[in-house]
Request: fold
Amino acid sequence: MGALDSLSDYISDFISVSSKRKKRKVMQTVEIKVKMDCDGCERRVTHAVSSMKGVKSVDVNRKQSRVTVSGYVEPNKVLKKVKGTGKRAEFWPYVPYNLVAYPYVAQAYDKKAPSGYVKNAAQALPSPNAADEKLMTLFSDENPNACSIM
Reply:
């Protein structure tokens, strides 16, 4: 009986320990826009972020003013750590222009964006009452009334 009691105690301890464990953080990639002018700025930001717990890789692109951090980290903590270096930082606000339906609408187009990128704007759609939009849908295959015009 002693062996079975110790085995049941061991299993119950294992079950209780596994239920008390913290949930593991998810592997994430965080992109941050940071204005960096020199090698010293780049080195300071890289060192600050790479010293964080859970960081697997840090990629700095000074030309685009972009820092990409991959690892088991929280995005807000990474942003706070970068701001702690004295640099102005924000989450990467741009997306590749080919992923946006209308990349040259006033809210999406940004002259300061790196080449090939536009601002990630949710309202970057033209109004449905715009004249050019009406003409496009007039001859569209998806318009059921288009055949009557042609």
Remarks:
- The beta strands are 28-34, 55-61, 66-71, 89-91, 94-96, 117-119.
- The CA atoms of residues 16 and 22 lie 12 Å apart.
- The longest helix spans residues 2-20.
- The two ends are 90 Å apart (CA to CA).
